[in-house]
Amino acid sequence: MVAALSRLDAGEAGPADLRLLTKHFLALLETRAPGRSVEVRVPPYAAVQVVEGVRHTRGTPPAVVEMDAATWIALATGSLDWASAESSAQVRASGERADLAPYLPLG
User: Fold this and answer.
1) What's the alpha-carbon Rg for the chain, to the nearest Å?
2) Statement: residue 107 has pLDDT above 80
3) Contacts 24+ apart (CB under 8 A), 4-8
4) d(CA 48, CA 41)
5) Whole-angstrom Cα distance, residue 73 to residue 1?
6) pLDDT digits (tens, 9 = 90+) for 46-73
């Protein structure tokens, strides 16, 4: 993981690095914000359901957050803050409880 972060910082991260870091930080988010009311999507690598509240079982979840891998990793590591990501449209968030700022950064 440290090697993947180093390659990312150097601008040399490949798809395998992005996949590894995305899944790692989504797993950390699941432990920090357990629940199933918000679906966090980082295509094409992964999606998780987090945050306590109304449980999602079928169809479109009550809240969806979607972003690319580079944005997710930047949010998770603290090199990008939630408000900046949202205002610059790097994050698309809709629905109740879709604000992940209280849970970030993760590491």
Assistant:
1) 13
2) no
3) 5/77, 8/73
4) 7
5) 12
6) 999 999 987 656 667 789 999 999 999 9
